[in-house]
Amino acid sequence: MDKEKLKSHLRPMTPQHTPLARKGGLRRPIRCLLCDIYGTLLISGSGDIGIGRRQEVESAEDASLGKLLAEFGIRRPPAMLRQDLQDAVAEDHQRKRAQGIDYPEVKIEEIWAAILPFGGEEKIRAFAARWEMVVNPVWPMPGLRALMAACRAGGVLLGIISNAQFYTPLVFELLLGAGVERLGFDGRLIQFSYQCGRAKPSPVLFATAIDTLAAMGIAGEHAAFIGNDMRNDIAPAHAAGLQTVLFAGDARSLRLRQDDPCCRDLQPDLQITHLNQLASLISNARP
């Protein structure tokens, strides 16, 4: 895959202000921090990974998608291809729900392979990655490097539970210069939805994390999960027995879900508006 072409889609972004403030705290010791990626560790232009789009965003990005389609020799308007994608994902989800999977996840390259008029796995993957980078531009969240450094220095294990696709680790490498494990995330504690076949808020992902932590001698109450979505992140993490951190630092991605029954009476243990706030807490908690 041509990394230079992927890099050409990267543009610096800054978080959009929210009216919320830091509040709450975590119970010590914290031995592990599990993280969501999109909208938490990475600024996400669309607010989250996925194909749900607002109409005004779609029209603004159509020019860039048109150039991408022309480059790949695809003679279909972006709106038609976007609808084909949504329909194919919905069909795949319906089939998997009928098989008993609570929150199904697709492998996006398989979806695109069924839609696009050309073959070849590498070309499909290249197109899928660049499509995503157009419709969902990303950039490191301010304070990300400080948070990772604080965890490494404090002996706090880093893990991931995130809705993601094959290009997510690649995007991390493009933005931060190294893959997730080289950046300090423990491979035993990395769960990407496309690999698991389930997406958040499936309790299976969080139960798996709890089991893995237990095998490592870490109780769930000594681990925390950070995410930007009360329903997809905070609710299932809390139900699994993890401490919870709501990242409320970017209006694009913040999802309070106040009308959702499972969130109405739920409060995170800690609410932050900048990753540096969590980095400082971890640094100050060192023995």
Give a verbal description of the structure.
The protein is an alpha/beta fold and 287 residues long. The chain folds into 2 domains: 3-49 and 138-284, Rossmann fold; 55-135. Helix content is 44%, strand content 14%. It contains 11 helices and 9 strands. The strands form 2 sheets. Strands 1-9-8-7-2-5-6 form a 7-stranded mixed sheet, sandwiched between helices. A two-stranded antiparallel ribbon has the order 3-4. Strand 7, helix 10 and strand 8 (243-247) form a beta-alpha-beta unit. The relative contact order is 0.20. The mean pLDDT is 94.
Keywords:
11 helices; 9 strands; 287 residues; two-stranded antiparallel ribbon; Rossmann fold; 14% strand; alpha/beta
Topology at a glance:
Blueprint: H1 3-7, E1 23-24, E2 32-35, E3 42-44, H2 55-71, H3 78-98, H4 108-115, H5 121-135, E4 138-140, H6 144-154, E5 157-162, H7 167-176, E6 185-192, H8 193-196, H9 203-215, E7 223-227, H10 230-240, E8 243-247, E9 270-272, H11 275-284
Parallel strand pairs: 2-5, 2-7, 5-6, 7-8, 8-9
Antiparallel strand pairs: 1-9, 3-4
Helix pairs in contact: 2-5, 3-4, 4-5, 6-11, 9-10
| Main pleated sheet | 7 strands, mixed
Name of the CATH class of the largest domain: Alpha Beta
The average pLDDT score comes to 94
**For this structure, what is the CATH homologous superfamily of the largest domain?**
HAD superfamily/HAD-like
Helix coverage percent: 40-55%
Radius of gyration, in Å, reads 19 Å
Shape: globular
Q: How many structurally independent domains?
A: 2
CATH-scheme architecture of the largest domain: 3-Layer(aba) Sandwich
Reported by name, the CATH topology of the largest domain is Rossmann fold
Strand and helix order: HEEEHHHHEHEHEHHEHEEH
The number of helical segments is 11
Structural category is alpha/beta
Q: What amount of the residues lies in strands?
A: 5-15%
Unreliable stretches:
none
